[in-house]
Design a protein that fits this description.
The complex is a heterotrimer. By secondary structure, chain A is an alpha/beta fold. In chain A, 37% of the residues lie in helices and 14% in strands.
């Protein structure tokens, strides 16, 4: 009895401290650090306070309803971590040196280049900022990415950016070993208080863009273009991120196939092949060149790429030169179509610049906080490099009619069309989202399977 | 006696010359690629020893290379080319991962699990090495070809495990298995990755090999086999049994390397879990002419080059493989100088 | 072509291989050259065929002095040599092999070559298929191929080094026929052999070499006894007579058959008794090494049984023999007996039969120093064996033997040693015999065989004589036997 009372009052006390610290202007409050590791009841408080205190849903995909929402409205999980801002690595006003660890080459016309140019954008907007990097991080045998980041520190870096999901473990290790260095993890979810892998890392910022919309546009472009009704999706490895992006492309394709073209859903096939990693690693992954060829040779006339590099586009070009009429949609980088414009239907890309600029600025000012952000497109300034986290550049291979249809689809999305609304059925037939209900951000982020209507491995 | 002394100095002189020539060639390469050589070397050294972090990273990589090279000395002593060392490291890593996974949620204490996993890793390496020995002894397959084949099988196996049965829940990626919780990491010094245990194992490994080759009957017999297998046979040494034994000892060490890669460096299974230490170890062993006394300093030098060379792309936009070029040049020129020395001294 | 060799000198280190040799062979002659192993025959022929150069002396062909720098040079001058082991390139087709060494531009004219090949084969009655592979041929057929190749290259002088080793009687007959035909056609043939029989059958003249010098020449009819005397020198030392103490039977060979790729031996029977010395005589390659290896368990007999101390050891490995007190000392000390790179003390350590794990350095050093002193080895415990002299290496090998042995098998125990070392070694070996060890040894030195053996086995191309008592024979009889003569008399 006594014990119970003790627990209760203790819990009350904690909630009170949380409230105080949440409202107080950070930095000074002492209780928080002691609370997090020791108090047993803390976990119970987190879920209850989270939905109320964090205005998370505003930035989730469903926020398409509010197209003008600026990307800065970050869903900061202020609950647990607020006071521990430990940005001594970049005390207010000191010049920033950004050290980036890239999974691929910095000029891959794909994922890595997009992140690298995002940081170059920051450099151009924040004079005096230095940028150093190590690309192809997995080519350094015997050296872990966390150790590579330490080499960047040795060269004066005071902010570290890990650019890939592949660095999830290493960014955790590094952040723990260097608590004074702000770490930005692109595509990470370790600091998403409402996420499944919440690790509450006091010196980490997770940034991701809501690519789902752009993948829907890509899927629509593919559906509008395909003559055979067979779309191939060249997938990287299988994880929640790749499942949701492949599925978004499918949702877009299915929508335009049935609702715009008024065709029969069963006449559309959407086939996913995973190569096993973000890019070709000879001897380990499937060769994306061969996978693309197989798609084209088995009747698929549009291949949507989900990998970091542009093999699908190159193969489509090769096939077209040999007399086939096939197309591809690359990924990640705004100018990826330039590799083979004649077969490119468009590219869904990341525009990392604005979000990175906001965060680096905050780090420089000393006002930054560890958090997770999942940034929407800026429909009002669509494809403007100064706005929005994602975009879609239409490709030269899109016919004029299809372009018009696609533009209409884009404006529908901007106007609030949400394809992640039920009914959504998983590949194994279970209903994931009930009819008429919008999927939660967590449901989208942690999609457990591909969707019904797609073929390909889910796990 | 006097003659012996002078020839030792001549030897050292030639080796020194080899290092100079290797440095000169690397410098030339640097100049040709438009980089300031002095600064490049400075960055290399700073990258390896410029900060506590870097020194720690050098030491982390040192332990596995040290152990691998120590193990290779045993097969080299018996005149065997254990090219299969990479596969043996891989199997060590697989066995270690297997034990860690199996007991991760058991009631065993983490210390116990780690010890068990390392022992299992050593066993795995030994098993794979004895396969090379069996192929050689009973199948007449040269250890180089047998080793290459088994390397290939091992790397296929590791890919299968990572992409198949051991993948992360809900994920199928070739980038590695799920990271083990902290308690299953080899205990390390606070924020540095270096574990005193790994360090101690490395030092212990080379000491054991040093005394094994120098002071035991088995070591001497292996040397006799390596230098002249027919005479060894005539002297009554059971040659194939001892060759088998040397493979198994080397496999134990390779397995330990794999275990350390998992428990101390990566904390999970990766496709390239060996970090190429097997082949690097072969290179180092050749460079030091199979003398145990040189293993520790030269492996340290090599991992320092490896770690320090990361600075080249950062600071000078150079290819980090340049350190590999220097490593290769060193071996090449030391061997070349050895040939030149033999030719010259024989004439005299 | 007339071949003249004048005052040829050649030394290998301190050893004189050729000591002012002069020999004139007129064209169209079959000249035999006889001599013991190491008499300098091969050296002389290698000089003539360009494999090595003489230190001094001249070669005159058809009255013109020439310098021969290489085998290719020799062929240009019309001299071709057929080696004991025909030099060939096994995985090749016969025709390709035939074309080797032919200077016919980059692209050999295969069709023409094939026609000429077939013509030559027909002329000599050789049945060789040009499309067959060389490794499918017997030694005799390889010889035929090599002769054809050399003739096709246009040689006028054909040198044959021990050509009758390893070929069948039929092939030998054909070879001799061919050689006679070639001589009749004006070619000069130089036939090197240690077989009196062959030389007697074929040659029009025989020159005998001993210790690098020409000791005599003879034309038919040949007096074999005289030839043997010339080959081995006149001095005949009576062996020290030693009665066989009938000890225990340590080794018994019962109807043993052994073979390798060139020799086949069967129905070998021998009983060796404790304290006895058995010498194996014969020209090298006549089967005595195989026999010795079979005694040691290093070669598995294809038939019969081997007993050590009445225990059947047939098919057991060398180590089992070793464990039962059988030791083997090979002829090539650094290839099969000692381990180059290891020191003397390391050798004693290895041979010590130790059982521990760590080496007891102190004890090992003490043992090594004792042995070095006992066996008069000129070296230190830390001396690597390869830097010891031959005599010291041999003494070291003896010193490595275990204290208690039943049987010691030796190949050429004193080859290459100075007299003093040889005597020392035999003193040590005889001391072993007194302790009840049996000794079987191979030697090409007939005097050594006669001097130290109680009984002698003679080997001649795979045939083994019955044991001959050393006190009932002499150098001449043995010389005839190892040359293949007098076997019918022996059998009775």
């Amino acid at each position: 009895m006594n014990k119970n009372l003790l627990w209760r009052s203790f819990a009350m006390l904690i909630v009170a401290t949380f409230l105080v610290t949440a409202c107080a202007p950070a930095a000074t409050s002492t209780p928080a650090p002691t609370v997090a590791p020791t108090s047993a009841p803390a976990p119970t408080t987190a879920p209850t306070t989270a939905p109320t205190s964090a205005a998370a849903p505003t930035t989730a995909p469903t926020s398409g309803a509010a197209p003008t929402a600026a990307p800065t409205a970050a869903p900061t999980p202020t609950v647990a971590v607020a006071p521990t801002v430990a940005a001594t690595g970049a005390a207010s006003g000191t010049p920033i040196t950004i050290g980036e660890i890239l999974v691929g080459p910095h000029n891959d016309t794909g994922w890595s280049q997009a992140t690298y140019e995002g940081l170059q954008y920051v450099q151009s907007k924040l004079p005096g900022t230095k940028l150093i990097y190590i690309d192809n991080a997995f080519n350094y045998q015997g050296t872990t990415p966390a150790q590579l980041a330490e080499q960047l520190l040795a060269q004066g870096a005071n902010v570290i950016v890990f650019n890939s999901d592949s660095f999830m473990d290493d960014s955790n290790t590094f952040a723990a070993a260097h608590p004074t260095i702000p770490v930005i993890m692109l595509s990470g979810d370790q600091n998403w208080a409402e996420g499944q892998d919440y690790k509450n890392i006091p010196n980490m910022i997770d940034i991701m863009g809501q690519m789902e919309y752009m993948k829907e546009i890509a899927g629509c472009a593919a559906a509008l273009t395909t003559q055979t009704g067979k779309i191939g999706f060249l997938g990287p490895l299988i994880n929640p991120e790749t499942r949701r992006l492949a599925s978004s492309a499918f949702l877009g394709a299915e929508y335009c196939w049935t609702k715009v073209l008024n065709k029969n859903a069963s006449d559309l096939s959407f086939d996913v092949t995973w190569i096993g990693n973000w890019f070709n690693v000879p001897g380990q992954t499937l060769d994306p060149t061969q996978v693309a060829d197989q798609f084209f040779n088995s009747g698929h006339d549009v291949v949507i790429s989900g990998i970091d590099t542009t093999e699908a586009l190159q193969e489509a070009k090769k096939m077209t030169d040999n007399g086939m009429k096939v197309f591809a949609i690359p990924y990640d980088y705004h100018a990826a179509c330039d590799v083979a414009p004649s077969v490119c239907l468009g590219v869904p890309y990341f525009n990392w610049g604005p979000a990175l600029l906001t965060n680096i600025k905050a780090i420089q000012d000393g006002t930054w906080k560890p958090h997770f952000e999942w940034n929407p497109p800026d429909w009002a300034h669509f494809n403007n490099p100064d706005y929005g986290a994602v975009g879609f550049n239409e490709g030269p291979a899109l016919t004029a009619a299809n372009k018009a249809t696609l533009d209409k689809f884009i404006s529908d999305l901007a106007g609030g069309l949400d394809l992640w609304t039920g009914p959504i059925t998983l590949q194994d037939g279970t209903v994931y989202v009930q009819a008429g209900v919008a999927a939660t951000p967590q449901q989208i982020w942690y999609l457990p399977q591909l969707l019904k209507g797609m073929t390909g491995a889910s796990k | 006696m006097l003659q012996k002394q002078t020839s030792r100095w001549v030897n050292l002189g030639f080796q020194f010359l080899a290092i100079l020539v290797a440095l000169a060639f690397t410098t030339l390469l640097l100049v040709l690629s438009g980089a300031p050589p002095i600064q490049a070397y400075k960055e290399l050294i700073l990258g390896a020893f410029g900060s506590i972090d870097n020194v720690s990273n050098v030491l982390i990589a040192w332990a596995p290379l040290l152990i691998t090279t120590a193990g290779l000395l045993v097969t080299f002593a018996a005149g065997l080319w254990n090219i299969g060392i990479e596969g043996q490291i891989t199997l060590g890593a697989i066995f270690t991962t297997w034990v860690l996974r199996s007991f991760e949620n058991s009631s065993l204490s983490p210390t116990m699990i780690i010890i068990l996993s390392i022992v299992a890793g050593m066993f795995g390496g030994m098993l794979w090495a004895s396969l090379v020995g069996v192929l050689k002894t009973f199948g007449g397959v040269n250890e180089i070809f047998g080793g290459l084949g088994l390397n290939f099988i091992a790397s296929t196996l590791v890919l299968y495990l990572i992409y198949g049965p051991w993948r992360r829940p809900g994920v199928a990626s070739l980038s590695g298995t799920e990271i083990f919780p902290n308690r299953l990491w080899l205990p390390s010094i606070s924020n540095l990755g270096i574990s005193p245990w790994a360090f101690a194992l490395g030092i212990l490994g080379i000491l054991i090999i040093y005394f094994f080759l120098r002071g035991t009957y088995i070591g001497l017999k292996l040397k006799a086999i390596g230098k002249n297998i027919r005479s060894a046979h005539t002297l009554g040494i059971p040659t194939w049994q001892y060759m088998m034994l040397s493979f198994m000892i080397c496999g134990l060490f390779a397995g330990l390397t794999g275990a350390l890669q998992v428990t101390n460096v990566y904390h999970r299974l990766l496709p390239y879990i060996t970090s190429g230490y097997g082949f690097l170890g072969l290179l180092v062993a050749m460079l030091i002419n199979y003398q145990a006394i040189w293993v520790a300093p030269i492996t340290l030098f090599y991992v320092a080059l490896n770690v320090g060379s990361v600075q080249l792309p950062i600071a000078l936009k150079l290819d980090s493989n340049l350190s590999g070029v220097l490593q290769g040049f060193l071996v090449l020129f030391v061997l070349l100088m050895e040939g030149v020395r033999q030719k010259l001294t024989r004439k005299v | 072509m007339q071949v003249e060799l004048h005052d040829i000198h050649k030394t290998f280190g301190p050893v004189y291989a050729n000591k002012g040799l002069t020999l004139v062979v007129p064209s169209g002659m079959i000249q035999g050259i006889l001599g013991e192993n190491g008499a300098g025959k091969s050296t002389l022929m290698k000089i003539l065929s360009g494999f090595i150069q003489a230190d001094r002396g001249e070669i005159i062909l058809n009255g013109k002095q020439v310098v021969i720098k290489s085998p290719a040079d020799a062929i240009k001058h019309g001299i071709g040599m057929l080696h004991q082991d025909p030099l060939d390139f096994p995985p090749m087709q016969i025709l390709d092999n035939f074309l080797i060494g032919h200077s016919g531009g980059i692209f050999p004219q295969k069709i023409k070559a094939k026609r000429e090949f077939l013509n030559l084969a027909k002329e000599f009655g050789f049945s060789l298929d040009p499309n067959n592979y060389v490794d499918a041929l017997t030694v005799g057929e390889r010889q035929q191929l090599e002769i054809m190749r050399l003739l096709w290259l246009g040689v006028d002088v054909l040198i044959l080094d021990e050509p009758t080793t390893g070929i069948s009687a039929e092939q030998k007959k054909k070879l001799f026929e061919t050689l006679r035909k070639l001589a009749a056609g004006g070619k000069t043939i130089i036939f090197v052999s240690h077989k009196l029989e062959d030389v007697g059958d074929l040659c029009a003249r025989v020159a005998v070499l001993r210790e690098g010098e020409l000791v005599g020449s003879m034309e038919p009819p040949f007096d074999n006894e005289k030839l043997v005397e010339m080959m081995f020198g006149k001095v005949i030392v009576q062996p020290q007579l030693q009665t066989i103490k009938p000890g225990e039977c340590v080794l018994e060979m019962r109807d043993v058959a052994i073979e390798d790729y060139r020799l086949k031996m069967s129905e070998i029977n021998l009983e060796a008794y404790a304290g006895e010395v058995i010498g194996l005589a014969g020209m090298e390659g006549s089967g005595q090494s195989l026999f010795l290896k079979a005694c040691a368990g290093l070669l598995r007999p294809v038939g019969g049984a081997v007993y050590v101390h009445n225990e059947n050891m047939t098919g057991k490995v060398y180590r089992s023999f070793l464990q039962r007190g059988v030791a083997y000392l090979p002829a090539s000390r650094l290839e099969e007996g000692l381990v180059p790179g290891l020191t003397l003390s390391e050798h004693f350590c290895l041979a010590d039969g130790n059982t521990g794990f760590f080496i007891d350095r102190k004890q090992n050093l003490a043992l090594t120093n004792t042995r070095i002193k006992d066996f008069n080895i000129h070296g230190l415990a830390t001396t690597p064996v390869e830097s010891l002299s031959g005599g010291n290496q041999q003494r070291a090998l003896l010193a490595l033997l275990k204290d208690k042995l039943s049987l010691i098998l030796l190949e050429h125990p004193t080859r290459g040693l100075d007299i003093e070392s040889a005597i020392y070694i035999w003193r040590k070996l005889k001391a072993r015999c007194n302790d009840g060890t049996a000794i079987i040894f191979i030697s090409s030195d007939l005097e050594e065989v006669l001097n130290y053996s109680d009984r002698i086995l003679v080997f001649f191309s795979g045939r083994v004589s019955r044991p001959i008592r050393a006190d009932k024979t002499n150098v001449e009889e043995l010389g005839e036997l190892i040359g293949g003569r007098g076997w019918t008399k022996l059998a009775t």
